[in-house]
Design a protein that fits this description.
The chain is an all-alpha fold. It has 19 helices and no strands.
Length: 327
């Protein structure tokens, strides 16, 4: 057996274990499946996906298109096989966590770093709380790491129909493409991106209301409320941005998308914290990119990931694995 094939199989095996754990986290934590935060909502989606689609269609075709019909169809297809709403949700968690786990183990520098990345709250929240984002991320990751351009466009283009927030990374890709065309690089590139971010964040509420996107009301009504945007998260990502920017011009140019993601998070945290939760869409890609750092930057990155890993483990030991995710 070739070394590359063996490595892929090992990554697949480890990813499957990771996915099984998160798909059955309620059993392992001895809690009721529906008592985990937002699980009742996902059970309802699994029970009546076509009814929910019909509600949006009665409002308008735009409402149906921009309220994640892809996620509804996935629930319908998986549900027709699984036959049970809870089993359907478990299957979706297994799918998304196995894809995320596979690419983490496959693309990160080594298995230890990959394991630490997969236990960063911004990453595993997609497999406990934000399940719809996790499914969308799975499709986005397949496209992101796919070598075939047509499949790349297909999978990444499908992600916003599963979770609308994936229009954000697609916008980043468009800006990056434009900046390369007009040959803007380095700090000028970041400055241009920051201006575009401010404009998009200001515009999002009005566009979302016009298109009747379900998240708009929730995001804007939660201003000032608790969210995934925490002071610790801000400290971590600001530090990571500093590590990236001091890693050398070649690394910066090769990983401008990841830098975009961090800059967007910081701007959102300062201007409108609820939008910063979209970092869950990008965290795995950003952290895997960081695992390729060298020299002192690699040491700083490893220490940062290690600190988050230790902090997460302390929280698990003191309050249980699901301490942040009870309804």
């Amino acid at each position: 057996m070739k070394k590359a094939t063996l490595s892929a199989l090992v990554c697949l095996f480890l990813a499957a274990i990771y996915a099984i754990i998160f798909a059955n986290v309620d059993l392992l934590s001895n809690v009721n499946f529906a008592d985990i935060l937002d699980r009742r909502n996902y059970i309802y989606y699994a029970e009546a996906p076509l009814d929910i689609l019909d509600v949006h269609l009665q409002k308008s075709i735009l409402s149906a298109i921009f309220n994640e019909p892809g996620f509804l169809f996935i629930n319908w297809i998986v549900g027709s096989v699984a036959g049970d709403a809870v089993a359907t949700v478990r299957a979706l968690i297994f799918f998304s966590a196995s894809v995320g786990g596979y690419f983490a183990f496959r693309k990160a520098r080594n298995f230890l770093i990959a394991f630490a990345i997969l236990l960063v709250p911004f990453v595993f929240a997609n497999y406990v709380l934000s399940l719809r984002q996790g499914v969308a991320l799975a499709f986005f990751l397949i496209g992101w790491y796919c070598a075939n351009r047509r499949y790349k466009i297909l999978f990444m283009g499908f992600a916003p129909f599963v979770h609308i927030s994936f229009l954000v990374p697609l916008t980043f890709i468009s800006i990056l493409y434009f900046s390369k065309k007009i040959k803007i690089s380095g700090y000028y590139n970041m400055a241009l991106f920051s201006i575009v971010c401010l404009f998009l964040i200001s515009l999002a509420q009005y566009v979302g209301s016009y298109l009747q996107i379900r998240q708009t009301e929730g995001y804007y009504s939660e201003f000032g409320a608790d969210s995934i945007a925490t002071g610790l998260g801000l400290f971590f990502w600001v530090g990571l941005l500093a590590i990236f920017l001091t890693a050398g011009r070649q690394f910066v140019e090769s990983n401008m998308f990841s830098i975009y993601c961090i800059v967007f998070y910081i701007i959102c945290y300062i201007i409108f914290p609820p939008f910063s939760r979209t970092m869950q869409n990008h965290a795995l890609i950003v952290l895997v990119a960081g695992s390729a750092l060298r020299g002192g930057s690699r040491t700083a990155f490893n220490l940062s990931i290690g600190a988050v890993f230790v902090f997460t483990c302390i929280g698990i030991v003191e309050r249980g694995f699901l301490y942040s995710f009870y309804a």
